[in-house]
């Protein structure tokens, strides 16, 4: 009996320790289940999962080294040996697309972890304090929003210099304002809530109220907005690569692949069709996934 009680106590302690983890896992599983019941959102989930799978297993999935030059097979048509054909240097287009998914995922991941916290902090701070703080922060946000994202990213890259790292920084600098605007709007609806007033009466600091009480309430909407913004991130990264200001050769970035292939596209359609199709498919997938997340996390939007 003693051993039975001991095992029961250990089980209870384990459940208490792992409670938040289990709850988060169940919530995530529930969200994925609801997304998969929506056909358009399911398409987005599947494409994003394929992108992640391809990026992680690129060395296994690629049929050739993406940077090996074979001039004897330059501009070969799609075949059983080169599924998507070869480019002007004889490099396998399919393998370059597969490795290019890593670059796209790098843009998505790094930009997300930068713009999410920055936009959330700026928006909640402006909305909570109001007054001159709100005015200054939102006018700066408006300045960023007044320029098209690609044009603003071009300006930052011109100042920082061409390259993959600078392109990521430039895109991150242009992607946070919409998130800040959304977080501010959400904060204005929560600022006068009773639980916020109760926290103030208990002596909680403004920073604690923002971080502990307001940010978690804004998080679902911000996550949806970040997901929707990833389509713009992909397109802006491809635009910078196409103009030669993003990832530099010989990196197999999809926009750069289209830039080099456009000179041969009339007779060698595969050089732009497959990279362009990948950009279109991934951008569409993130838009559909964002719409599905909005329906799941905010039922009022249905």
TrEMBL record:
<feature type="transmembrane region" description="Helical">
    <location>
        <begin position="150"/>
        <end position="176"/>
    </location>
</feature>
<keyword id="KW-1133">Transmembrane helix</keyword>
<keyword id="KW-1003">Cell membrane</keyword>
<keyword id="KW-0571">Peptide transport</keyword>
<feature type="transmembrane region" description="Helical">
    <location>
        <begin position="268"/>
        <end position="290"/>
    </location>
</feature>
<comment type="similarity">
    <text>Belongs to the binding-protein-dependent transport system permease family.</text>
</comment>
<keyword id="KW-0472">Membrane</keyword>
<dbReference type="InterPro" id="IPR050366">
    <property type="entry name" value="BP-dependent_transpt_permease"/>
</dbReference>
<feature type="domain" description="ABC transmembrane type-1">
    <location>
        <begin position="105"/>
        <end position="290"/>
    </location>
</feature>
<protein>
    <submittedName>
        <fullName>ABC transporter permease</fullName>
    </submittedName>
</protein>
<feature type="transmembrane region" description="Helical">
    <location>
        <begin position="41"/>
        <end position="62"/>
    </location>
</feature>
<dbReference type="InterPro" id="IPR025966">
    <property type="entry name" value="OppC_N"/>
</dbReference>
<dbReference type="Pfam" id="PF00528">
    <property type="entry name" value="BPD_transp_1"/>
</dbReference>
<keyword id="KW-0653">Protein transport</keyword>
<dbReference type="Pfam" id="PF12911">
    <property type="entry name" value="OppC_N"/>
</dbReference>
<keyword id="KW-0813">Transport</keyword>
<dbReference type="InterPro" id="IPR035906">
    <property type="entry name" value="MetI-like_sf"/>
</dbReference>
<dbReference type="GO" id="GO:0015031">
    <property type="term" value="P:protein transport"/>
</dbReference>
<dbReference type="GO" id="GO:0005886">
    <property type="term" value="C:plasma membrane"/>
</dbReference>
<keyword id="KW-0614">Plasmid</keyword>
<keyword id="KW-0812">Transmembrane</keyword>
<dbReference type="GO" id="GO:0015833">
    <property type="term" value="P:peptide transport"/>
</dbReference>
<feature type="transmembrane region" description="Helical">
    <location>
        <begin position="105"/>
        <end position="130"/>
    </location>
</feature>
<dbReference type="GO" id="GO:0055085">
    <property type="term" value="P:transmembrane transport"/>
</dbReference>
<feature type="transmembrane region" description="Helical">
    <location>
        <begin position="222"/>
        <end position="248"/>
    </location>
</feature>
<dbReference type="InterPro" id="IPR000515">
    <property type="entry name" value="MetI-like"/>
</dbReference>
């Amino acid at each position: 009996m003693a051993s039975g009680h001991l095992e029961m106590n250990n089980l209870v302690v384990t459940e208490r320790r792992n409670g938040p983890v289990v709850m988060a896992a169940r919530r995530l599983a529930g969200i994925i289940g609801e997304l998969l019941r929506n056909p358009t959102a399911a398409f987005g989930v599947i494409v994003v999962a394929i992108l992640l799978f391809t990026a992680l297993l690129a060395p296994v999935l690629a049929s050739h080294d993406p940077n090996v030059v074979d001039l004897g097979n330059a501009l070969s048509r799609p075949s059983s040996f080169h599924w998507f054909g070869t480019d002007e240097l004889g490099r396998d287009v399919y393998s370059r697309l597969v490795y290019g998914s890593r670059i796209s995922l790098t843009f998505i991941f790094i930009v997300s972890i930068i713009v999410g916290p920055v936009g959330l902090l700026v928006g909640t701070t402006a909305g909570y304090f109001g007054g001159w703080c709100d005015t200054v922060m939102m006018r700066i946000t408006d300045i960023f929003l007044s320029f098209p994202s690609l044009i603003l990213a071009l300006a930052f890259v011109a100042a920082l210099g061409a390259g993959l790292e600078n392109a990521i920084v430039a895109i991150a600098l242009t992607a946070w304002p919409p998130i800040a605007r959304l977080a501010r709007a959400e904060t204005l609806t929560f600022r006068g809530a009773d639980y916020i007033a109760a926290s103030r009466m208990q002596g909680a600091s403004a920073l604690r109220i923002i971080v502990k009480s307001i940010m978690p309430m804004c998080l679902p909407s911000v996550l949806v907005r970040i997901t929707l913004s990833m389509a713009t991130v992909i397109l802006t990264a491809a635009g910078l690569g196409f103009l030669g200001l993003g990832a530099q050769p010989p990196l197999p970035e999809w926009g750069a692949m289209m830039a080099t292939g456009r000179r041969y596209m009339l007779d060698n359609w595969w050089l732009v069709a497959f990279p362009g199709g990948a950009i279109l498919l991934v951008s569409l997938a993130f838009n559909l996934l964002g719409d599905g997340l909005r329906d799941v996390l905010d039922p009022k939007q249905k």
